[in-house]
UniProtKB/TrEMBL annotation:
Family: Belongs to the 4-hydroxybenzoyl-CoA thioesterase family.
Pfam hit, one: 4HBT_2
Native organism: Paracoccus aurantiacus
PANTHER family: 4-HYDROXYBENZOYL-COA THIOESTERASE FAMILY MEMBER (PTHR31793), ACYL-COA THIOESTER HYDROLASE YBGC (PTHR31793:SF37)
NCBIfam families assigned: thio_ybgC, YbgC/FadM family acyl-CoA thioesterase
GO molecular function list: fatty acyl-CoA hydrolase activity
InterPro entries to which the protein is assigned, alphabetical: 4-hydroxybenzoyl-CoA_TE, HotDog_dom_sf, Tol-Pal_acyl-CoA_thioesterase, YbgC/YbaW
Protein name per Swiss-Prot or TrEMBL: Tol-pal system-associated acyl-CoA thioesterase
Lineage top rank: taxon: Bacteria
CDD domains associated with the record: 4HBT
Keywords: Hydrolase
C-alpha cells in the first residue's frame, strides 16, 4: 500500500541558491512516515507508553535527483519494502507532479525502553503490510 502525503516548499526550506536544503528532504520524509503510521491507526505515543517500543532510524540511503524550489507542491510517498520481526524498511520518494526529485530507502529499528532492539509489538507487522 502506498501512502501519499502533500507538502509545500516554504522559503525557510530553501538555501542561498533558492533550492530545498538537502537536510529538509529528510524532514519531509520523516513527517510522511509519521502520517503513514497515524493513518494505519498506530499511536506512537501510546506505543511507547504501553509497550515501551519506539522506532529509530537505523540506516538511510538517499538519492537527490532534481531540486525542488520555493512554493513547489510536492508529494511524499511511503511504501513498505520489507518488514522483519524487529525492522521496517521503507521506500520513500519526493515528487513534483510525476517527476521524482528524491528517493530514500529507510531502515527503522524497533527499540525497547532499554534502547536495545526488540521485536515489533503484537500485530504491528501485519498492520504495516496491509
Amino acid at each position: 500500500m502506498m501512502h501519499r502525503w502533500p507538502v509545500r516548499v516554504y522559503y525557510e526550506d530553501t538555501d542561498l541558491a533558492g533550492i530545498v536544503y538537502y537536510a529538509n528532504y529528510l524532514r519531509f520524509i520523516e513527517r510522511a512516515r509519521t502520517e503513514w503510521t497515524r493513518e494505519l491507526g498506530i499511536d506512537q505515543t501510546r506505543l511507547k507508553q504501553d509497550e515501551g517500543a519506539v522506532f529509530a532510524v537505523r540506516r538511510i540511503e538517499a538519492d537527490y535527483l532534481r531540486p525542488a524550489v520555493f512554493d513547489d507542491e510536492l508529494i511524499v510517498t511511503t511504501v513498505p519494502a520489507r518488514i522483519t520481526p524487529a525492522r521496517i524498511e521503507l521506500d520513500q520518494q519526493v515528487l513534483r507532479e510525476d517527476e521524482v526529485l528524491f528517493t530514500a530507502r529507510v531502515t527503522l529499528a524497533c527499540l525497547g525502553a532499554d534502547m536495545r532492539p526488540r521485536r515489533l509489538p503484537g500485530d504491528l507487522a501485519a498492520l504495516m503490510r496491509s
